[in-house]
Amino acid sequence: MGIDLGTSSVLVYVEGQGIVLREPSVVAIEKETKRVVAIGTEAKRMIGKTPANIVAVRPLRNGVIADFEITEQMIRYFIKRVHNRRSLLHPRIVIGIPSGITEVERRAVRESAEQAGAREVYLIEEPMAAAIGAGLPINESIGNMIVDIGGGTTEVAVISLGGMVVSKSLEIAGDEMDEAIVQYFRKKYNLIIGDNSAEDVKVKIGSVFPLPEETRMEVRGRDQVSGLPKTVVVSSEEIRQAMLEPTKLIIEVIKDTLEETPAELSADLVERGIWLAGGGSQIRGFADLLSQETELPVHIADDPLTCVVRGTGRYLEELEKIIGSKKSII
User: Cα(198)–Cα(177) distance, rounded to whole angstroms?
Assistant: First the structure.
């Protein structure tokens, strides 16, 4: 199995079957007993709607484990879901991890997968997995730049000859854009909205670059002053303004990476450009804004949301070949 263990969603790849599961990385638990009530899509629907004794939590923050026990239960649940609840199955697992995490955090990811029933656990850094999933020629002696904007982290790397020459990990991505939208409504309209509503606004009318035709939508929430339900109409220009700060920080880390890239590889990037992956790359106008800021061509990978998990899958397949060839030699 290949797993993209993301802050906002978990994707699972099974050898020979492709991507078999895509669910939010949310777990609903009872406060008193810590009993798991729901995992994935069902748990996400509960965010902001649970009674006092149930809380919906994200066990991963900024791409790393915030709650070890709940993460372990979540991985175990997804393994069983994928393999039709065969309890004795112990798969070989490849997990995509942020490039900036510590050795302690790496160990926590590995141990949580082992406790969940994995036979062997291999870790691959997300920018490398995203580049493999995007089909970039990472083993050639040319520069490949990948920017993976997920829920909790933005991963940037320049890859050549099968390794990351320069890499940076920023704990600002899609979730921070959602939070910026929540704060904008609170400050401008005295309207309290939830994270799910903010994400809905971002997906439907969010942009980071002027649109040919600006759009508007109704947003419902609770009035901060009266406490009563309230509806406001917002424009795509307003949401662009709301997301300005996190967008600027993401652009800056990409520029910083370019500044640290060796001259020979920089020359390759002038022709080859930058490749975008992850859900954040689908925000309207991001490729145009990045191209304007860096003066480089910018491409969005095919199905950017699944680049990392497809990369873990291809890495897994190569791993199977390597292990198989070693066994045949022995």
Answer: 9
Q: Is 138-172+245-302 the same fold as 2-128+308-329?
A: yes
d(CA 136, CA 143): 10
* Predicted pLDDT of residue 272: 93
For domain 138-172+245-302, give the CATH superfamily: ATPase, nucleotide binding domain (3.30.420.40)
The tens digit of pLDDT for each residue in 236-282 reads 999 999 999 999 999 999 999 999 999 999 999 999 999 999 988 99
Residue 167: C-alpha distances to residues 47, 108, 148, 172, 281 (Å): 34, 22, 11, 15, 18
Structure tokens of 274?
Answer: 């930058």
CA distance 18 to 273: 28
CATH code of 174-244, in short, is 3.90.640.10
| Whole-angstrom distance, CA of residue 207 vs CA of residue 254 | 19
CATH class of 2-128+308-329: alpha beta
Instruction: Report pTM.
Output: 0.87
CA distance 59 to 268: 40
- At 18, which helix (H) or strand (E)? strand 18-24
What are the tokens at 186? 């609170």
Q: Name, in order, each residue with C-beta under 8 angstroms of 11's C-beta and a sequence gap of 6 or more.
A: 3, 4, 19, 21, 22, 305, 306, 308, 309
Q: How far is CA 92 from CA 3, 21, 79, 116, 307, in A?
A: 11, 17, 11, 12, 20
- The residues spanned by each domain of the chain are 2-128+308-329, 138-172+245-302, 174-244
Distance between CA atoms of residues 285 and 261, nearest Å: 25
